[in-house]
Amino acid sequence: MMDTGDLGTLLETLCPMFLLVNEDGRILRVGPTLQKLRPDQPMVGKDFLEIFELVRPRAVTTLSALMTSTGAKLHLKLHDTPRTALKGLIAPLPQGKGAVINLSFGISILDAVRDYALTSADFSGTDLAIELLYLVEAKSAAMEASRSLNLRLQGAMLAAEEQAFTDMLTGLKNRRAMDMVLGHLISANLPFALMHLDLDFFKSVNDQYGHAAGDHVLQQAARIMVQETRNDDTVARIGGDEFVIIFKGLIDESVLSSIAARMIDRLQKPIVFEKIYCRISASIGTALSTQFSPPKSAEILNAADLALYEAKRKGRSRHCLYSALAGHRQGDAASG
């Protein structure tokens, strides 16, 4: 008959999570993987129930009683932390010489691999745990690849959306973005002011110094408009040298006139391009959403246009309010 030493050597190869116990429940030999769970606490020589808590079968409280339950499925936990859950089977040895208890992690295998840094070398070559680990690794790799792809796709979508609403030369919003902002403000019944700005003499810069100079002037003009407005405001380039600024929640005409005056003052200063002094100015017209009931995008844009052309008619490089223009027309109608 095979002695316990030879049996232990065989079990280490076939069942690296085994326990060989004597008839008193004293551990005679322990599999290398099982001992790896408590590397600083040798299990050999200790009582089985001193290390393991028997969760099921509940009616059994001693190992001798357990040995009579051949084939019974064991549910165990380690007494100290981490309290890893284990499953097992007990096989009594002939002539009551003890028993072999073979353990496994069951569904706790992933936690065990993480907690104890286990690898495939810690399991028997026929253990399905190895296949499970490979599947988990493959799934993790696939999920990471999928997550990375999704992040790239989301980034590409955001970039495409941003590009669809951005004027690529100046970095400002474009007409499509302006229409969207106007629609949102009107549907939400939020008050706002709309300023239509046109660069005076810009065509002369393009004709005299070329498109590179013209592009530079547009970029510098856009920078000035952004600097003179708030983060919540929308600055959009809607044409060659035409811009619209939407002031969310701002309908104080004196404040708007001050903003327009600052922009006009800064835009009439020469813009240097390759030692060339490019001179432009700005004409601005402003209308308020509260001047229309109910407000409509086309009407507000048209009102700002009328005020802009009134500013140009009066000599350019100035700001005109639609309210002043409308009052003047009403006065003319009354006098007629």
Automatic annotation (TrEMBL):
This is guanylate cyclase. InterPro entries: DGC-Regulatory_Protein, GGDEF_dom, HNOB_dom_associated, HNOB_dom_associated_sf, Nucleotide_cyclase, Rev_trsase/Diguanyl_cyclase. GO terms for molecular function: guanylate cyclase activity; hydrolase activity; nucleotide binding. Keywords: cGMP biosynthesis, Hydrolase, Nucleotide-binding. The keyword Oxidoreductase does not apply. It comes from Ruegeria denitrificans. Residues 190-324 form the GGDEF domain. It holds the Pfam family GGDEF. It is an enzyme of class 4 (lyase). Its EC number is 4.6.1.2.
